[in-house]
């Protein structure tokens, strides 16, 4: 088994076609067929269902796919780390984050990073939080940002930013002039909410249930920016992370209203693999995180 065989195998799996994979890799179809046949002979298992024309993986192929991707990622990581010894003129930094982190926290961090290391390629992937720990473990990501501790023995978690949920309304809304409201005061209000089910959302429902108050979600939307737009236009009210609304509140496009008993905090964490020497690019990013958020970082 060699890297070339694994690259051919992954290309066929991705393209779902021997011919398209051959074209993509600038090889003849017989050449890649021979490479796969030798790989199958070595493993003693068929990797593709020959009765299907769509390059369908067998059960053995599905198992190999995960390992092959990790092996090639490790190869790229090794060659990348060696290249970085020449002064960080080459390298890659890959980060996974949810929507709010990507929009409201990462830009400042990455601007600072780019100023110091303009030659490093930065890749930011918007991911659902539940998928990020596995992506870091599989070495598809250097870092992940989460609002929970995955508590995995192979992952290190560091607290970065402490946020909390707040109620925001349009300046035109009657509640905009209220010094403080109770949860029961919100019984007849229409809420705009994110359509992704999160622990924070569950805690909001618990708070309303504890106060025997219905939570009337009239509109569910896919992005925080869209939710804020609806609230600004007085279509409804919302409970959102303060990090996501502080600029809008400062610009008087939204009004933050104090809610008695609403104390739902969110701790943003950065995670990375525990048993690994970080690349120069990754170490530098971690140093910038610590510099920009001093006194807020603790490690577990």
Write up what this structure looks like.
The strands form two sheets. Strands 1, 2, 3, 4, 5, 8, 9 and 10 form an eight-stranded mixed sheet that branches. This protein has a two-stranded parallel ribbon with strand order 6-7. α1 (3-15) crosses α4 (59-84) and α2 (18-24) packs across α3 (29-43). Helix content is 42%, strand content 20%. The two termini are 39 Å apart. The chain folds into three domains: 3-82, Arc Repressor Mutant, subunit A (Orthogonal Bundle), CATH 1.10.10.10; 86-161 and 267-292, D-Maltodextrin-Binding Protein, domain 2; 163-266, Periplasmic binding protein-like II (D-Maltodextrin-Binding Protein, domain 2, 3-Layer(aba) Sandwich). The chain contains eleven helices and ten strands.
Helices and strands in order:
Blueprint (H helix, E strand, L loop, with lengths): L2 H13 L2 H7 L4 H15 L15 H26 L7 E6 L1 H6 L1 H11 L4 E6 L5 H6 L5 E4 L8 E15 L10 E2 L9 E4 L4 H12 L6 E5 L2 H9 L5 E4 H9 L4 E5 L5 E9 L6 H13 L8
Parallel strand pairs: 1-2, 1-3, 5-9, 6-7
Antiparallel strand pairs: 3-10, 4-8, 4-9, 4-10
Helix pairs in contact: 1-2, 1-3, 1-4, 2-3, 6-11
- Helix share, percent: 40-55%
Tell me the fraction of residues in β-strands, as a range. Answer: 15-25%
Rg result: 24 Å
The run of helices and strands is HHHHEHHEHEEEEHEHEHEEH
- Give the distance, in angstroms, between the N- and C-terminal Cα atoms: 39 Å
CATH class of the largest domain: Alpha Beta
CATH topology of the largest domain: D-Maltodextrin-Binding Protein, domain 2
Q: Any idea how many domains?
A: 3
């Amino acid at each position: 088994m060699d890297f070339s065989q694994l690259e051919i195998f992954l290309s066929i799996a991705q393209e779902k076609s021997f011919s398209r994979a051959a074209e993509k890799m600038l090889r003849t179809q017989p050449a890649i067929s021979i490479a796969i046949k030798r790989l199958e002979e070595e493993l003693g298992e068929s990797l593709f269902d020959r009765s299907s024309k769509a390059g369908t993986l067998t059960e053995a192929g599905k198992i190999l796919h995960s390992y092959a991707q990790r092996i090639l990622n490790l190869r790229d990581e090794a060659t990348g780390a060696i290249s970085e010894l020449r002064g960080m003129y080459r390298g890659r930094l890959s980060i996974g984050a949810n929507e709010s982190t990507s929009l409201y926290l990462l830009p400042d961090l990455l601007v600072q990073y780019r100023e110091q290391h303009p030659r490093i390629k930065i890749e930011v992937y918007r991911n659902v939080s539940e998928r990020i720990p596995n992506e870091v473990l599989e070495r598809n990501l250097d870092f992940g940002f989460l609002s929970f501790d995955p508590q995995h023995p192979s992952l290190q978690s560091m607290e970065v930013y402490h946020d909390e949920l707040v109620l925001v309304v349009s300046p035109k809304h009657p509640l905009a002039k209220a010094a403080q409201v109770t949860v029961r005061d919100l019984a007849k209000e229409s809420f705009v909410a994110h359509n992704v089910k999160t622990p924070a959302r569950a805690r909001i429902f618990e708070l309303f249930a504890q106060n025997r108050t219905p939570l009337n979600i009239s509109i569910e939307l896919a992005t925080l920016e869209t939710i804020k737009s609806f609230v600004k236009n007085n279509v409804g009210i919302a409970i959102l992370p303060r990090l996501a609304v502080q600029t809008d509140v400062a610009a008087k496009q939204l009004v933050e209203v104090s809610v008695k008993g609403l104390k739902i905090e969110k701790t943003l964490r950065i995670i990375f693999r525990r048993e690994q020497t970080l690349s120069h690019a990754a170490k530098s990013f971690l140093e910038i995180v610590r510099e920009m958020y001093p006194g807020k970082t603790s490690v577990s």
